[in-house]
Amino acid sequence: GLVIAPNPVAQGEVATINVSDDATWEIFSISGALVAKGTGNKLSTNSLVSGSYVVKVVDNGYSSAAQLIIK
After folding, report:
1. Are 17 and 43 in contact (CB under 8 A)?
2. CA-based angle 40:51:39, to the nearest 5?
3. Which value, in Å, is the radius of gyration of the alpha carbons in the chain?
4. Which of 70, 48, 32, 47 is nearest to 56 (CA)?
5. pLDDT tens string 29-46
6. How far apart are CA 37 and CA 28, in angstroms?
7. How many angstroms separate the CA atoms of 4 and 33, rounded?
8. Distance CA 35, CA 25 (A)
9. β-strands 42-44, 51-59: how paired?
């Protein structure tokens, strides 16, 4: 499955996900709003406030999701 580390992550730090450099990711708030997106295996948390989020990743045509917690 999808692994995000570290998790929880401190706001402003970079989290790593176990996907290829070609993967695309989106971060959603609990209310369903898209708050960040990008490509590769690094998640920037600069724009996120403390709380719980859902990370959706598409890698090689496969979609998966995991929870991300910002401290």
Report:
1. yes
2. 10
3. 11
4. 32
5. 999 999 999 999 999 899
6. 9
7. 20
8. 11
9. unpaired
Strand partners, 17: 4
Look at the alpha carbons of 12, 18, 23, 28 in this order and tell me if their dihedral is positive or negative: negative
- In sequence order, the 6+-apart residues with CB closer than 8 A to the CB of 35 are 27, 28, 29, 47, 48, 53
pLDDT level of residue 66 (50, 70, 90 thresholds): very high
Between the CA of residue 17 and those of 22, 31, 61, what are the distances in Å? 12, 23, 16
Q: 31 vs 24, 45, 53, CA distance in Å?
A: 21, 18, 9
What is the Cα–Cα distance from 24 to 13, expressed in whole angstroms?
19
Asked whether 7 and 22 are in contact (CB, 8 A), the reply is no
